[in-house]
Write a structure and sequence with these properties.
This protein is an alpha/beta fold and about 110 residues long. The chain contains four helices and five strands; from the N terminus they run ββαβαβαβα. The protein has a single domain, classed as Transcription Regulator spoIIAA (2-Layer Sandwich). Helix 1 packs parallel to helix 2.
Length: about 110
């Protein structure tokens, strides 16, 4: 798997979409495509796992906002971000007020259960 290629796995009816490396103008579109196709499957919830992301640029944050807006009210949406390259930018621009951001995958699954 390419360092910038996001991937998806399922925990029951919850989709976990993970990315790694840097989410910037060049790499974010792949995450956006995967999130769009995931949301079209109408999962019970979507967890975007940014645990292995070292840099989250504005293009990556826009992908998260777009995916959150695509999620219908019955689809839970949580972002896992716990590092200076991910959680800090989300806090600084106020996205932690837009969607749930937690530190671990376990916390995300508990939030959606």
């Amino acid at each position: 798997m390419d360092a910038y290629e996001p991937h998806q796995r399922w925990l029951g009816t919850t989709a976990v979409v993970s990315a790694s490396g840097a989410l910037d103008l060049l790499t974010s579109p792949a995450l956006g495509k995967l999130l769009t196709s995931t949301l079209e499957q109408k999962p019970g919830g979507v967890i975007v796992d940014l645990t292995d992301v070292r840099f989250l640029g504005s293009a990556g944050m826009q992908v998260l906002v777009d995916a959150h807006e695509m999620a219908t009210p019955d689809i839970g949406f949580v972002v896992v971000a716990d590092g200076p390259g991910t959680s800090r930018p989300l806090k600084l621009v106020g996205l932690t007020e837009v969607f749930d951001v937690v530190a671990t995958l376990q916390a995300a699954t508990e939030l959606l259960s």
